Amino acid sequence: MLKLQIPKNRMNYLMKQVQHHYDAVILENGWEYYHKGRVSDIELQGTSIHARVKGQKVHETIINLEDFTHSECSCNYDGFCKHIAAAFFSLYAPYGRPELLLQQLKQAIHSRKKTVRSAASVLQGKKLEKPSSPLEDSMPVEWHRFFEGKFHGFSISHQQSIETFYESALETLPAYASAWKPSVQEVYRLHIILFMMRKIEQFYQETKSSYLSYYHENGCKITAKQCEERMEETLQAIDVKASTRAEPKHWHATLKMLSEFALHGKDSPIDWLLVYRLFWWEFKNHPKVLKEETQRLELLLSKKELTARRRDTLIIAKAHFDIIQGNKEDAFRLLATLKHPNTKDFFIYLHHYYESKQWEETLVWLRYLLPTVDQANHEDFRVFCQYWQDTAKHLDSDAEWVQVMESLLPRSYYYYTAYLLHTKRYRQWVDLQLANRISPLSLYAMELKAIEEHDAELLLPLYHQAAERAVLEKNRASYTTAVRLLKKLHAFYKQLGQEDRWEHYVYRLSDKFSRLRAFQEELKKGKWIR
How confident is the model at residue 520 (pLDDT cuts 50, 70, 90)? Predict the structure, then answer.
């Protein structure tokens, strides 16, 4: 058992905080993790306890001894999770039996809830009736409470899908603001999308342990992408300068809310980092709010107990402000400190500069992404290659583009081979097929025809290699394939007027594989040997 012992007053503080912030079920799950010995590497770093808790995977857990509310875990749970609870019980072990503490805390939690319910029932008659619709002059947090009320109890099941929620929210919620001022309606529509994003993230976390989790996760990711695209379209349609002048309080509350939940760095179907940067890009001409947010990020980054993923998220967010203000050198200097750079985090800049035809800036980001793009998903890799090819058209030479494609082989094979054909670099094209051991039977007839019309002799090595490789497979089907290739090879030699060279080759081939009787029979059927 781990023997780290914190001061008694700190332990008493944690017990009160756990009693206040935890649900009994989550707390009991945390005790089970502790009881099964899943807590390891527990140590004191400054005013924080760092520990590793093993679940389906190992999670990094931090307990803040000064302010428990700033404790965090690398898991996906939104709130105080069982991993933090497990680390808490490990800390209590030197003082007594954690199972007895669990019972005391559960009883205290039950008493607290009972008291709250009693107080709520006393005040129920005095409480003002909740509005049946959101109010125009209410703050965004009130709108979100209304949204939550409208979809209270909605859960993912066989009958209700994430797509159903998405469609229902878009159909019902905008109508409540139809009579509002246009400037408030704009902000309201953004909050509908933010609400949908948060609910999708919630559904994603709730269904991860379901036996249908793959289908639910896939649905969450598809719908999340739709929300991100809708958010981008909505932001682009708003004149942010005029809107912030008309509704400063709503926009200030919106940015504050976004900053609070968009930079947690946890696994989510929502690309919160993308959404955060899309919002703040619209405020690039508002130096005061940019400075305030930058200072907030600097304060967060100064904390020592951050997980690597959270720190990377904050670094990218802070670098974004340097980028949109034109301080690229400062941005790249900051990005160089990332622990785990991810290509997809920077496609926002690639898309922006490509769409606005700023080719020099596009080239800067293409070069920056090159070291990590080979790890990108298929769609991002495709976009990278396409953007490079289009950008190369605006350079004095395509030498760098060719070098990039060669460095990314074999993954860039399809993009590179198409470019070589397009630019009529047929010899390089053939060399590429030879290097990748591609059979002519696997290539498009139109491609081979184009090279044949240019110079049929370039294709000879390709057919030679494929035919001999087929023979080496040493079975009747492969011999038949080899003969098909040899027939085409014979036609090329005939076309080139080199039949003597063909006869010399085929007799040498027969001699090389003289022990393969079935192959010899195939050669005789073709009347190439006697």
Answer: confident
> How far apart (Å, rounded) are the C-alpha atoms in residues 284 and 25?
46
* Residue among 367, 253, 264, 359 at smallest CA distance from 310: 264
d(CA 65, CA 56): 27
The pLDDT mean for the chain works out to 87
- Cα–Cα distances (Å) from 467 to 455, 473, 504, in that order, read 20, 10, 16
What kind and span of H or E run contains 257?
Answer: helix 248-261
According to DSSP, the residues that pair with 61 across neighbouring strands are: 51, 73
Radius of gyration of the chain (CA): 32
CB atoms within 10 A of CB 352: 18
Write the DSSP assignment of 443-490 as a string of letters. S-HHHHHHHHHHHGGGGHHHHHHHHHHHHTT-SHHHHHHHHHHHHHHH
Structure tokens at 412: 């860039």
Tell me the C-alpha distance between 192 and 185, whole Å: 10
Q: How many CA atoms lie within 13 A of 88 on its CB side?
A: 36
Report the side by side order of strands in the sheet with 39-45. Answer: 39-45, 48-54, 58-64, 72-73
- Over residues 12-34, mean pLDDT: 85
Cα separations in angstroms, 275 against 59, 194, 197, 272, 484? 26, 9, 10, 5, 56
Cα 417 from Cα 430, distance rounded (Å): 9
Spatial CA neighbour of 93 closest among 20, 28, 39 = 39
Residues 6 or more apart whose Cβ sits within 8 Å of residue 490: 502, 506, 528
Q: How far is CA 80 from CA 27, 39, 45, 68, in A?
A: 9, 16, 20, 10
Q: How confident is the model over 337-353, as pLDDT tens digits?
A: 999 888 999 999 999 99
In angstroms, the CA 171 to CA 168 distance is: 5
Give residue-wise pLDDT tens across range 490-519.
999 999 999 899 989 988 998 898 888 888
